[in-house]
Amino acid sequence: MPTQILSLNHISAGVAGKNILRNVTIRVAPGEVHAVMGPNGSGKSTLASVTMGSPVYALSADRSGISIGKAELTGLPAEERARRGLFLAFQSPAAVPGVSVMQLLRAAYQELHSTGMTDGTGNGVQNPVLSRRWKAADTSLVEFSEAVRDQARALDIDEALLNRGINDGFSGGERKKMEILQALVLKPKFAIFDEIDTGLDVDALRIVAAGIRTLRRRGTGCIIITHYLRILRYIRPDRVHVIVGGRLIRSGGWQLARQIEKRGYADLTDR
Ligand SMILES: Nc1ncnc2c1ncn2[C@@H]1O[C@H](COP(=O)(O)OP(=O)(O)OP(=O)(O)O)[C@@H](O)[C@H]1O
Ligand SMILES: [Mg+2]
């Protein structure tokens, strides 16, 4: 099978009357980690949202497109992109009181790994959170729940959090770890982490970095949006991309992140 590359091709995007991204191209192979850096407001989160299919942003019609291997994702809604193997951890993950982390993970896993069976009653349960019948073919509900608890333990996540409303009263660090837990459990082909390292204490940072290394080892391609060299020291990304003013102004090895840490962005933009 040919290598399935995540391609963000010539991405130009904006909101009504405002261009945010201009001709950004990034290609990530399975098992690669790419870092995206850039000043505040340069368009990094917008790139993540556009990749996931946010309806807020308009993609310029000409050459802009997103694909995994030969499969075109441009124009598909976010849930369909998730089904095709894309995962996005938001910069500020939203709280969803009333749906627990465990419920969300069970529902999402079934959506991604089901055999396409309905609930068998003929009245097609539409809401996967409420659906009682476990649809995933590759594991039982009991095994799945145990695997989630094991994974949570490895990330030093308090088991009680799994049964609380998603991010409902979670600390900043707990929210970030929860995003890594979701990626590890859902096993996406490609994952984008938007400032997953912001606000983490040193121990949590190490744990989160180890989580990303695990994903990489299993073949998930990752894009890490970050302001800091700190997390990159633990991960040693394959590529570093710098976005300034909506343009990709430089791509290079991870020493580029070292240079930015030392001298800021002015050095890169002055030339
Ligand atoms: N929905 C929107 N409506 C209007 N402007 C927007 C919208 N989304 C993003 N922008 C603008 O686009 C620019 C890029 O925003 P974005 O969130 O992508 O930046 P960023 O690189 O992620 O910044 P940070 O490092 O601060 O997170 C900003 O000027 C922002 O105000
Ligand atoms: Mg951002």
Describe this structure in words.
Mean pLDDT is 91; it is low at 117-125. Strand 1 and strand 2 form a beta hairpin. The chain has 2 domains: 6-95 and 171-269, P-loop containing nucleotide triphosphate hydrolases (Rossmann fold, 3-Layer(aba) Sandwich); 101-169, no CATH class. The strands form 3 sheets. A 6-stranded mixed sheet has the order 7-10-11-3-12-13, with helices on both faces. The chain is 34% helix and 25% strand. It is an alpha/beta fold. It contains 9 helices and 13 strands. It has helices at 44-52, 78-83, 101-113, 141-154, 172-186, 202-217, 229-235, 255-263, 266-269, and strands spanning 6-15, 18-28, 33-37, 58-59, 65-68, 71-72, 86-89, 96-100, 165-166, 190-194, 221-225, 239-244, 247-252. Helix 3 (101-113) runs parallel beside helix 5 (172-186) and helix 4 (141-154) crosses helix 5 (172-186). The structure holds adenosine-5'-triphosphate (ATP) and magnesium ion. Magnesium ion binds next to helix 1.
Binned, the helix content reads: 25-40%
How would you write the strand order of the largest sheet?
7-10-11-3-12-13
Mean of pLDDT: 91
Note the total helix count.
9
Number of E strands:
13
Looking at CATH, the homologous superfamily of the largest domain is P-loop containing nucleotide triphosphate hydrolases
Give the CATH architecture of the largest domain: 3-Layer(aba) Sandwich
Given as residue ranges, the uncertain stretches (5+ residues, pLDDT < 50) are 117-125
Structural class: alpha/beta
Distance between the termini: 42 Å
- Write the H/E string, N to C: EEEHEEEHEEHHEHEHEHEEHH
